[in-house]
Design brief:
With about 250 residues, the protein is mainly α. Among the domains are: about 105-185, Orthogonal Bundle (Non-ribosomal Peptide Synthetase Peptidyl Carrier Protein, Chain A); about 215-249. It is about 50% helix and about 0% strand. It has nine helices and no strands. α5 (about 105-120) runs antiparallel to α6. Belongs to the mitochondrion-specific ribosomal protein mL50 family. Keywords: Mitochondrion, Ribonucleoprotein, Ribosomal protein.
């Protein structure tokens, strides 16, 4: 009877027994690896630290690392230049001025007659000596279309101030002859818009002497000529020095 009771107790005990850890030092190891708990501060203390800036140096600075996944589209440098150039070529720019330069009075007379006949439907002119060209403009609309036509054909812009002053078609001819055909406008520089062009013909007095402006290509031509003459003189001086040295020897 007793052995059966002991066996039954042993069988029941085996259900509640777990494997025991015989390593006593493992308890200290667990204590060391455990993460230290951060003490919880009161809300008033945290607010005071933030306002005083005491925690400013303790806050670590972190930068956001941007990758290609953060952006959409393409960079401007990645676009194909040929594609952009083809798109620009397809844009219908309104080129309303002629690219040919006005260089003669005969060409100006033909342009003036064509501009007058194309913008004035009631009357036509056949020559530059026609008296109709000396008559003032009848209305502003005719003057506007005539001035635009003559600017388009000559390729020269006329300021609004000059258009206001020019009261007849023949006055436009005189203005273009003086400013464009004579070459005066070609001397105008955008870098020096207020420069004064002086010429000997503008002054009849003998006490006034005007030094004519020398164009850049003329300056280069004269400079190259002077340098070539100096080089020739240096070669001649070197040759004479060699000859004198030979004779002295």
């Amino acid at each position: 009877m007793l052995p059966n009771r002991i066996a039954s107790c042993g069988a029941k005990r085996s259900l509640h027994v777990s494997t025991s850890n015989k390593d006593f030092m493992s308890w200290f190891k667990k204590k060391q690896t455990a993460k230290p708990s951060v003490p919880i501060k009161k809300t008033e203390e945290v607010i005071n630290e933030v306002e005083s800036g005491a925690r400013g140096a303790e806050v670590p600075l972190s930068r956001l690392k941007l990758t290609e996944d953060f952006f959409i589209g393409k960079n401007a440098s990645d676009l194909d230049r040929r594609e952009r150039q083809s798109r620009i070529n397809e844009i219908p720019f309104n080129v309303w001025r002629s690219s040919e330069k006005l260089n003669s009075s005969d060409a100006l007379d033909n342009i003036l007659i064509e501009s007058y006949n194309s913008t004035h439907s009631r009357s036509q002119v056949t020559g530059i000596a026609d008296e109709k060209l000396a008559l003032p403009f009848t209305d502003l609309a005719f003057k506007f279309h005539f001035s635009k036509a003559i600017q388009s054909a000559t390729g020269t812009l006329i300021t609004d101030y000059q258009i206001t002053r020019l009261q007849t078609p023949i006055a436009f001819r005189d203005y273009l002859l003086k400013e464009v055909v004579s070459g005066k406008l070609a001397k105008f520089k955008d870098s020096e818009p207020n420069a004064i062009e002086l010429a000997k013909g503008n002054y009849s007095s003998d006490s006034i002497h005007v030094v004519e402006d020398v164009r850049p290509h003329e300056r280069k031509k004269r400079l190259s000529k002077i340098l070539s003459e100096v080089e020739a003189l240096e070669r001649e001086a070197a040759r004479q020095a060699v000859e004198e040295a030979r004779q002295a020897a």
